Amino acid sequence: MAAPKKKLQGLVAATITPMTENGEINLSVIGQYVDYLVKEQGVKNIFVNGTTGEGLSLSVSERRRVAEEWMTKGKDKLDQVVIHVGALSLKESQELAQHAAEIGADGIAVIAPFFLKPWTKDVLINFLKEVAAAAPAVPFYYYHIPALTGVKIRAEELLDGIQDKIPTFQGLKFSDTDLLDFGQCVDQNRQQQFAFLFGVDEQLLSALVMGATGAVGSFVSRDLSILWSN
């Protein structure tokens, strides 16, 4: 079973994708971005090509190049780089997952496909399973964001028995305001030691009370690191 070198927890920066005035990706500033996160904000975990990074608005080639640059510039500086590889096309998502494994990503994350939507838990898990299988040695995280995907399958329902289907499953990025669902995810899966990463900045304090082990968002700073300090 794939396992992270250490549990993904605490603050995780949802990185933007730098762009030029002409709409081209601007890889030249990512090194500065890494140094800003590490030195100025004290953040050493990142989530690349997600919603904040507009990953689904980029081409596969652009997503690959952005991921490669973060891995290169973050070497020996960042603790964990999780790359979002979700796509509408299963084959594209698998390609991105395999690429993430090849460049040494510490984890991959996938949202539910949102054009032809999965209508049951089993259909969604089958999609996620196929993507995870393309990177069998990389920790896998489900990215739950129903407000954007329109997929209303509760995260608590999805997590029930998920490691039987996806052995590399390590946790959940929960970007929804349904704190009841989030609380049930935590309460019913304490024995699995999953990472429960909350993704709605405005409700983070409430999520911490309910058992969130980390936060993935665009509002991350050194001031918040005290929430996970020993």
Automatic annotation (TrEMBL):
Pfam families noted in UniProt: DHDPS
EC number from the UniProt entry: 4.1.3.3
This protein's pathway: Amino-sugar metabolism; N-acetylneuraminate degradation
Domain of life: Eukaryota
A molecular function GO annotation: N-acetylneuraminate lyase activity
Primary localization: cytoplasm
Subcellular location(s) per record: Cytoplasm
GO CC annotation: cytoplasm
Subunit structure, as described in the record: Homotetramer.
Similarity-based family: Belongs to the DapA family. NanA subfamily.
Protein name: N-acetylneuraminate lyase
Organism of this sequence: Aotus nancymaae
